[in-house]
Amino acid sequence: MDVYVTSFSYKRGMPPDPKGDGGGYVFDCRALPNPFWVESLRKFTGRDKPVAEFMAAHQGEVEAFLKPIRELVALSIRSYAQDGRNRLSVAFGCTGGQHRSVFCAEVLAAFLRASGDCNVELVHCAQEFWKT
């Protein structure tokens, strides 16, 4: 099973489906606390330690968001495999595609890789727009 995990910016639009087979999930991270509003975090991304620390400071909200996503994706992987499907897409969006969506995509990708049940491809669609 291949799982394609992406982060994206709602300002720039949904990511394309590179394989054209559809199927999967899109999760809106805009309900999570936003590191953008902390001036010292603006230059970082969801892959950087300062943003991870910010998200950890909001552990309750972040875990309440991510736990059912992990469970749903794990269930889908098992179900897809039983049905002979070999690909699942999971996308995380936030306003700029820099902090929250990147963080959530990284967390899910790490979880899936640790499970060993699938191959994970991780792409941050908005990365080229906010890297300096």
Strand order of the largest sheet: 2-3-1-4
String of helices and strands: EEHHEHEH
Multimerization state: single chain
The unreliable regions are none
Instruction: Give the distance, in angstroms, between the N- and C-terminal Cα atoms.
Output: 35 Å
Residue-averaged pLDDT, rounded?
Answer: 92
| Computed Rg | 14 Å
Structural class: alpha/beta
How many beta-strand elements? 4
| Proportion of helical residues | 40-55%
Strand content: 15-25%
User: Can you count the helices?
Assistant: 4
Shape: globular
For the sheet with most strands, the description reads: 4 strands, parallel
How would you describe this structure in keywords?
132 residues; alpha/beta; four-stranded parallel β-sheet; 4 helices; 4 strands
Walk me through what this model shows.
By secondary structure, this protein is of the alpha/beta class. It has 4 helices and 4 strands; from the N terminus they run ββααβαβα. The protein has helices spanning 49-57, 59-82, 100-115, 127-130; strands spanning 2-9, 24-28, 87-94, 119-124. It has a 4-stranded parallel beta sheet, with helices on one face. The chain starts with a strand and ends with a helix. The mean pLDDT is 92.
